[in-house]
Structures are given as structure tokens and as C-alpha cells.
Request: fold
Amino acid sequence: MSVAITLKSVPLFAHLAEHELRRVAELTRRRKYPKGSVILFEDDPGDALYVVVAGHVKVVLIGEDGREVILATLADGDFFGEMSLIDDEPRSAHVIAMESSDLLVLRRDDFQRCLDETPRIAIGLLRALTRRLRLADSKIGGLVLLDVTGRVARILLEMADENDGVVIQKKVTHHQIAQMIGSSRETVSRTMRTLAEENLIEMVGKTIKVRNRAAMEAAAGLR
Ligand code: CMP
Reply:
């Protein structure tokens, strides 16, 4: 598939005209990152923006004791690395490939050129950053206001809503859920077993389904 067609499916660029897409495509290069590789290191200077063409990456902070907090997971069509390009500060987090991932890389100067030539990209950027801020607000609210059951319910609903509202397609382990909600793997496993026993969710093999949305929303403090 040509890079311009790929870019058309990326919300940040989706509203650009064909010639604008071709221009952005000319400036990007494609790179594959194997599972587990660190794409960006926190505190490094920022030299490029990345778009996920295929794969799955996590944005993480790593404490001095080695504990990881997952701030977000990003997949096809998402982008990252824009913050350092916008404010000239060092990278705000590590970004690590959770599976073999195919990315488009746009160097800092070329990103600036794209913004100068096609200011409409800035609107897409603002929308995406606003969405991220909403998600971050919701996460902070959840961490302060909800117990572990509420936090697990909320993250499962968010992941189900990335698909059809029922089936969670993301391959996510209990350990990773724990890293997203500031809990331990054991507590998350116990909480999910209880949610399954109460028929709020169903776990068959590695697939998780939301069975009782109303009760899950109530647990997540959303009604
Ligand atoms: P930058 O700071 O350049 O490098 C790390 C990147 O992780 C950052 O840009 C964003 O693209 C991304 N990032 C940081 N925090 C979040 C978040 N809360 N949600 C999604 N992406 C984030």
C-alpha cells in the first residue's frame, strides 16, 4: 500500500487533500521495531514524530525501583513523539513496542515543514491532544475516586469501546492492566475473577467480553 493511502487512514492526516497527503508521504520513512524495543527514551531530545501503521506500542514511565506505569497504549493510526517537537522539552516518557510494529517516522524539520505548508494538520493535532487530555483527566479522576474494582471496570469498558463495546480485542495481560491502573497483578486477577463470577464480564481463553454493561458502568462510577 502506498504511504499516502496509509496516511489517509490516520486521523491526524485524514482530512488532507490528495496532493497534501503525497507531500507528507514524501517526507516520511518507514521503520520496523521488534517486540520489546524502546522506540523513544524518556528525557532524550525529541527529533521525530512517529505514526503507528501496524502494531501496538505503550507509553510508559519507569520509576527508580524499575516499576512501570503505562500511561497509554497506542495502535494503528495513532501517533506519538509530538510533544517534544512542539515544546522543545525532552521526551516525556518511554515508548516501547508491545509487538513487532511498523511505524512511519517524520523528522523534526519535516514535521515543521508539514505544519508550515499544511496548517490544517495543526487542527488534527489539537483534536488528538484534546482527546488525550480528556483520557488523562478521566484516568486521574479514576485513580483518586475509584476503588480497584471501579478502575478495572473503567479500563475494561474503555478497551471494549475501542471495538464494539462488548469484545476486548486488545491482547492485554493482567500485569499490564495493573500497570495501567496502579495496582498489582494479583489484585487485578482477583478482581476480574469476581467480575466474571458476578456475570459482569466473561473470560473465555484470552478473550474478555463485557456481559452486563449497566453494572460495569455503575462499578466504574459512570452512572
Ligand atoms: P514526547 O514527549 O515527545 O515523547 C513521548 C511521547 O509519548 C509524547 O511525546 C506523546 O506523544 C506520548 N505521550 C505522553 N503522554 C501520553 C499520554 N498520556 N497519552 C498518550 N500519549 C502520551
